[in-house]
Specification:
single chain; about 120 residues; 434 Repressor (Amino-terminal Domain); 2 domains; about 0% strand; elongated
Length: about 120
């Protein structure tokens, strides 16, 4: 599941909206919306994302959060480390090999640490 998919599902369930009803309102198939929620489809187009935001009728902060989540919700990532430090290549390969064995709290820690350290370098 992607961050955007999890949030869409949470918002839909909090409002008591069925997958079928939301899909019909967005003019997409239930299968597509389900795949989007479960991370089997990449991030939606900007047009569809705006329709999702309008469907939920959310305020600016929440709309910006949905847009941010869409940016970090590509379930099929490719990283080219050519020309980078050897540590970048090693980190990328270790993450590829070990990510399925990490606990939720480990993933959150690594994500937060990466965000913190990357922000400090700017």
């Amino acid at each position: 599941m992607t961050p955007l998919g999890a949030r869409i599902r949470q918002m839909r369930e909090e409002r008591g909206i069925s997958l079928k009803d939301m899909a019909a309102a967005l003019n997409v198939s239930s299968a597509y919306l389900s795949a989007l929620e479960h991370g089997k489809r990449g991030k939606p187009t900007g047009f569809l994302l705006h329709r999702i935001i309008a469907f939920f009728n959310v305020i600016w902060d929440e709309a910006e959060e949905l847009q941010r989540l869409a940016e970090v919700s590509d379930p099929k990532v490719t990283i080219d480390t050519g020309g980078m430090l050897p540590e970048a290549t090693e980190l990328t390969n270790r993450l590829r090999d070990d990510i399925t064995r990490l606990e939720t709290e480990d993933l959150k820690f690594l994500r937060d640490e990466l965000v913190k350290r990357a922000g400090r370098k700017r």
